[in-house]
TrEMBL record:
Domain HTH lysR-type: 8-65
Short name of any one Pfam family annotated for the protein: HTH_1
Species this chain originates from: Pseudooceanicola atlanticus
Keywords annotated in UniProt: DNA-binding, Transcription, Transcription regulation
Molecular function terms, GO-annotated: DNA-binding transcription factor activity; sequence-specific DNA binding
Family: Belongs to the LysR transcriptional regulatory family.
Protein name (record): LysR family transcriptional regulator
Length: 308
């Protein structure tokens, strides 16, 4: 499909891309911060300029036509190229000032990042830090964050990552809960207990099954999409919950379930965009996080060894 010479309008292309990715004009309008009629006019103008229909209307939703699917591939490439422009500009900046955004889980953001960032603030007071507390994976390529702390290795070729070490998770419960329901002596006995978990119950049941722990959906009685809420429910005596050992070691009102059982290990990755990694302020924050988190993981290993 060839775009008519001299008629390219990026606003129309953005409206088309947002509508295609979100499935409706109203959702695209929310994404772009515009009104639905404005998005509709931009998409219609693009269809008129190309002389093709890009969407078929299906109830309240929109379905891409063959021409729309072909165009979507090209517009996505354009959007990715546009996103690289500020990335490249940021990567060339050597000033030790400006904003750096970091995304991590809500538990990590609350319990670990503040003390780490306080040390950074003393060393580099002109760097502004924004912490994006989120349990989903933010898109670094689209500048949803500059640096991410993740527990899965990134696969995108434009990202660079450093493995900092491993964290260790265990089941914990409040002493009150265990006094009432009994202390399990094996993983098999866990099946008779109530659990606190994340909102996607089926996924957690499947994950536990992969660890040799068989529970039914009925046992996963209390759920939240927040790790902080999950942990507070465990502390309140509502059931057993998985938590990283470093957090539990600093929580005196919980008890380790199945002492001596193997930990559930998980990797800790520090991730950024390759082009941003050359910016001095990004590099300083990245290196500070890498050093501090690595040291924290080693201290936790030592504390766990001392308990053994």
């Amino acid at each position: 499909m060839n775009w008519p010479a001299g008629t390219f309008d990026w606003n129309q292309a953005r409206a088309f891309l947002a509508t295609a990715e979100h499935g409706s004009l109203s959702a695209a309008a929310r994404e772009l911060g515009q009104t639905q009629p404005t998005i509709g006019r931009q998409v219609s103008a693009l269809e008129d300029s190309l002389g093709v229909a890009l969407f078929d209307r299906a109830g309240r939703g929109l379905i891409l036509t063959d021409a729309g699917r072909e165009l979507l591939t090209h517009v996505r490439e354009m959007a990715e190229a546009a996103a690289r422009i500020p990335l490249t500009a940021s990567g060339q900046s050597q000033a030790l000032r400006g904003k750096v955004s970091i995304t991590a889980s809500d538990v990590f953001s609350t319990h670990l990042l503040p003390s780490i960032l306080a040390d950074l603030a003393r060393a580099a007071p002109d760097i502004e830090i924004e912490v994006i507390s989120a349990n989903d994976l933010r898109d670094l390529s689209r500048r949803e964050a500059d640096i991410a702390i993740r527990h899965v290795r990134p696969t995108e070729p434009q990202l660079t990552a450093r493995l900092l070490g491993e964290g260790h998770g265990h089941f914990y419960a409040s002493p009150d809960y265990l006094d009432r329901r009994g202390r399990p002596r094996s993983r098999a006995e866990l099946a008779g207990h109530d659990f606190v978990g994340f909102a996607d119950a089926n996924r957690m049941v499947h994950t536990l099954a992969g660890l040799g722990i068989s529970i039914t959906l009925e046992r996963l009685k209390y759920r939240s999409d927040s790790g902080l809420v999950l942990w507070e429910m465990v502390r309140a005596g509502m059931g057993l919950g998985l938590m990283s050992a470093d957090i539990a070691l600093d929580t005196p009102d919980v008890e380790l379930v199945l002492p001596g059982d193997e930990a559930f290990d998980y990797p800790v990755w520090l991730v950024t965009h390759r082009e941003l990694h050359s910016a001095r302020r990004i590099r300083v924050v990245f290196d500070h996080l890498a050093e501090a988190i690595t040291a924290h993981l080693k201290r936790t290993e030592g504390r766990l060894s001392g308990l053994g």
